[in-house]
Amino acid sequence: MSFPTGHPQQYEPQQPAPQQYGRSSRMSDSSLRLVWVYPDLLSTYGDRGNALVVERRARQRGLGVQRIDVRSDQAVPTSGDIYLIGGGEDRPQRLAAERLRNDSGLVRAAENGAIILAVCAGYQILGHEFVNDLGEREPGLGLLDVWTTRGEGARCVGDVLAEVDPRLGLPQLTGFENHQGVTHLGQGVSPFANVQVGRGNGTGDGTEGAWRDTVFGTYLHGPVMARNPAVADMLIKLALDVNALPPADTTWYDALRAERIAATRQPA
């Protein structure tokens, strides 16, 4: 893999592929292979909860789940169905990016059609580059056509409400952001959502996160899937290559969503 070497704004625009999601199922024996990438480096603000929610939502549908927690000194397997990456501080983010580039397992998994969702620092790593803890431009994995610069103003901190790209068929998104990065979207991706409350990508254009095909990035913690179980269900549907799942109880999630959405809508 090669990385852009020019200034981020000079990247050659990529032609967007048709925005579609779905792939041939790689499921075997109704078992979902769920990979939690580098929990020792990237798991701030309870992002491990995303793995717990996906596992729980799958088991509620009678699916077996093989969950693999891959530490940063271990190789990333290429045969997973769903890969989750959390957020992290600046130095752990740099270390994670270096090891993921050297390992190449996640890139090969993406090339195989795996489902990937990354949060905050993990989201930045999926792009072309970000600014590391040394103030240097750090190459990412190039799995999303985005690049991240360091914001000059106040950090993006607080609760977020956003409307998800309607093509994904998801309800209103709720989460918590805390980042200094400003993530710019190229032509090869679409915004994951557009913010109603909050800063999102920090560019001032109202966008939050990015997605293309089966790769998704967002700044939202919470963890985002505890607040938005429909996101977990979407990943499971993609892994199964189905359009719908059997219903599952959402009582706990609904209560959390209602409480956080109401609190976020209250005037400061």
Give descriptors for this structure.
single chain, 268 residues, alpha/beta, Rossmann fold, 6-stranded mixed β-sheet, 4-stranded antiparallel β-sheet, globular
Describe the structure.
- The chain is α/β, with parallel strands linked by helices and 268 residues long.
- It has a single domain (24-265), classed as 3-Layer(aba) Sandwich (Rossmann fold).
- It is 26% helix and 26% strand.
- The chain contains seven helices and 14 strands.
- The protein has helices at 48-60, 90-103, 105-111, 121-126, 224-227, 229-240, 251-265, and strands spanning 31-37, 64-70, 82-85, 115-119, 129-131, 137-139, 146-150, 156-164, 173-179, 181-185, 193-197, 207-208, 210-212, 215-218.
- The strands form four sheets. It has a six-stranded mixed sheet. Strands 9-8-11-12 form a four-stranded antiparallel sheet, with helices on one face. A two-stranded antiparallel sheet has the order 5-6.
- Helix 1 (48-60) crosses helix 6 (229-240).
- The radius of gyration is 17 Å and the shape is globular.
- Residues 1-28 have low confidence and may be disordered.
